[in-house]
């Protein structure tokens, strides 16, 4: 051993055998860093970036008919169709002029898409929505034929309405407008009860009322509300509010609304007769006690909105004249709630099968009453 070599070994420094040998040029390098034929490991080159996986593709989201489209809905073509339809319906709502042929096509596509969605998920509500879309498509087609002069099919049955003619429809709207401008107390509950009492007493200022009438309005505390109406002088009773609440049809309570009694300083606001008054009262009672509203225990505000919308449609149930929607200012004048509350009421009516394709925009409420409730409507002439 030479002194230099011995010195290195003695100091514990690396010997030639300890140093990694250079791999032959062009030799392959395995994943463990070894060259073939047992060559020592070779360090991987520095500065090589670690491969990254591609970012996950963002899933599409959308909404249609007050429903969110699940981003993981399969098949993808169904998800994309639902999202596309939601966008197209919102675009249609922004049109300045309606195109009923386009609207009918959209409803037909919606019916097919919702039928497939129901098949995929097993949700019966989706199938019901598909049925409503089919009805809306048929209605839009019929309206389009009327407007283009093609006429309706001979087998299309006319709607039989509770109030059969334009004169009675206008009378219904006149009562709603009168109550909106002369309501003695704030809030939708007081407004609805005031409306029902006005319809009972419209001609003479007096009429019969029973506890069952109060119980069917969805009021939070009917006895307190009646006491408030009598306390402010708008309503007069022969007994107490409790007596009215417990009264039965065989022994009704004669109620009086002094402002509607003829002969006072102010003229009587209504000019319809006894039979028409009874029909108007019956119409309102049928609306607020409609089966799905009753079974769903709808609050007074929802029932009041149902009455209001029933009086503001075209012949086919589209909200507003010619289906352009109802101005929010007009809706809120009839149904005294905040805008956020109105949106909730619209959702409740949609869930009850009253409304379809309802949209609350910055200025209007658009949509359509379903075929099931068309008999309640009072079309705008």
Description:
This protein is mainly alpha-helical and 381 residues long. The chain folds into three domains: 63-148; 164-287, no CATH class; 290-381, Winged helix-like DNA-binding domain superfamily/Winged helix DNA-binding domain (Arc Repressor Mutant, subunit A, Orthogonal Bundle). 46% of the residues lie in helices and 9% in strands. The strands form four sheets. It has a three-stranded antiparallel sheet with strand order 7-9-8. A two-stranded antiparallel ribbon has the order 1-2. A two-stranded antiparallel sheet has the order 3-4. Helix 3 (100-121) packs antiparallel against helix 4 (124-148), helix 6 crosses helix 12 (300-310) and helix 12 (300-310) crosses helix 14 (339-351). The longest helix has 25 residues, at 124-148.
Shape: elongated
Number of separate domains: 3
Determine the structural class based on helices, strands and strand pairing. Answer: mainly alpha
- Count helical runs: 14
Q: Give the strand order of the largest sheet, numbering strands 1, 2, ... along the chain.
A: 7-9-8
Largest sheet report: 3 strands, antiparallel
Distance separating the two termini: 119 Å
Low-confidence stretches: 1-35, 151-157
Features:
two-stranded antiparallel ribbon, Arc Repressor Mutant, subunit A, 3 domains, disordered N terminus, 3-stranded antiparallel β-sheet, single chain, mainly alpha, 381 residues, 9% strand
């Amino acid at each position: 051993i030479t002194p230099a070599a011995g010195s290195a070994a003695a100091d514990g420094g690396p010997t030639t055998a300890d140093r990694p040998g250079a791999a032959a040029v062009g030799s392959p390098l395995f994943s463990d860093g070894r060259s073939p034929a047992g060559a020592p490991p070779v360090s991987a080159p520095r500065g090589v970036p670690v491969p990254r996986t591609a970012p996950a593709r963002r899933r599409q989201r959308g909404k249609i008919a007050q429903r969110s489209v699940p981003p993981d809905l399969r098949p993808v073509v169904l998800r994309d169709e639902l999202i596309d339809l939601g966008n197209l319906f919102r675009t249609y709502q922004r049109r300045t002029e309606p195109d009923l042929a386009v609207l009918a096509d959209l409803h037909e596509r919606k019916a097919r898409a919702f039928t497939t969605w129901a098949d995929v998920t097993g949700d019966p509500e989706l199938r019901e929505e598909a049925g409503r879309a089919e009805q809306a498509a048929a209605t839009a087609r019929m309206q389009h034929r009327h407007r283009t002069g093609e006429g309706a099919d001979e087998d299309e049955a006319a709607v039989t309405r509770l109030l059969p003619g334009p004169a009675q429809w206008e009378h219904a709207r006149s009562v709603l407008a009168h109550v909106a401008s002369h309501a003695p107390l704030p809030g939708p509950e007081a407004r609805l009860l005031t409306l029902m009492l006005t319809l009972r007493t419209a001609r003479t200022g007096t009429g019969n009322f029973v506890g069952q009438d109060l119980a069917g309005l969805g009021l939070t505390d009917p006895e307190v509300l009646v006491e408030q109406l009598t306390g402010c002088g708008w309503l007069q009773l022969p007994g107490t509010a409790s007596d009215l609440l417990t009264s039965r049809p065989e022994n009704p309570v004669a109620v009086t609304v002094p402002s509607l009694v003829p002969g006072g300083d102010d003229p009587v606001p209504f000019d319809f007769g006894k039979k028409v008054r009874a029909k108007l009262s019956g119409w309102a009672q049928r609306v607020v006690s409609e089966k799905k509203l009753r079974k769903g225990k709808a609050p007074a505000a929802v029932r009041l909105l149902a009455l209001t919308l029933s009086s503001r449609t075209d012949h086919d149930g589209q909200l507003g004249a010619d289906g352009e929607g109802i101005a929010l200012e007009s809706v809120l004048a009839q149904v005294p709630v905040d805008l956020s509350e109105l949106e909730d009421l619209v959702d409740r009516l949609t869930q009850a099968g009253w409304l379809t394709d309802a949209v609350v925009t910055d200025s209007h409420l658009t949509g359509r009453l379903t075929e099931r409730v068309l008999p309640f409507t009072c079309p705008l002439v």
